[in-house]
Specification:
single chain; alpha/beta; about 10% strand; about 150 residues
């Protein structure tokens, strides 16, 4: 509701032009943030509200369990892990919520991970575990492959 209330002010300030910067819309003004609305700001708001749990035993996304709770990761890996290559590359991973759930499901494992998204999204993701490498990319340009 606060973002809707802020819309008339934003429209007037921008001369009633469509926004071109996803970090300059009514949500940012209403909540005094520079985080992108999706997925970082919204995900953090939902997670802090208790609607989305922080442990992997709770449902995430509202309608179904997180994939890390039901996919047989260790059985599929069967001990075949290359210590130099990342185990998981989360393309378009936002603030890393899937990676954080994965790390919660497998505490103590020293696997490597890569979180890929746009630079401004990664910047707003905050600090992640040391084994998670952030790599900025743009869907509209060719992305170098990740060896592994």
């Amino acid at each position: 509701m606060p973002a809707i209330i802020e819309c008339p002010n934003l429209f007037k300030e921008t001369g009633f032009r469509n926004p071109t910067d996803p970090k300059q819309v009514a949500v940012q003004k209403a909540f005094n943030t520079d985080m992108p609305v999706f997925p970082c700001w919204l995900y953090r708001r939902i997670r802090s509200s208790g609607i989305v749990g922080t442990d992997s035993s709770k449902e995430t996304g509202g309608s179904r369990p997180s994939w890390v709770t039901w996919f047989p990761v260790k059985e599929k890996l069967n001990g075949r892990i290359d210590d130099e290559a990342p185990l998981l590359v989360d393309v378009g991973g936002g603030c890393g919520h899937d990676l954080l759930e994965f790390l919660d499901q497998f505490p103590g494992e020293k696997w490597k991970y890569i979180l890929q998204d746009q630079r401004q999204v990664l910047d707003s993701a905050g600090d992640l575990a040391p084994m998670v490498e952030k790599r900025a990319f743009n869907f509209f340009y060719r992305v170098p492959s990740v060896a592994g």
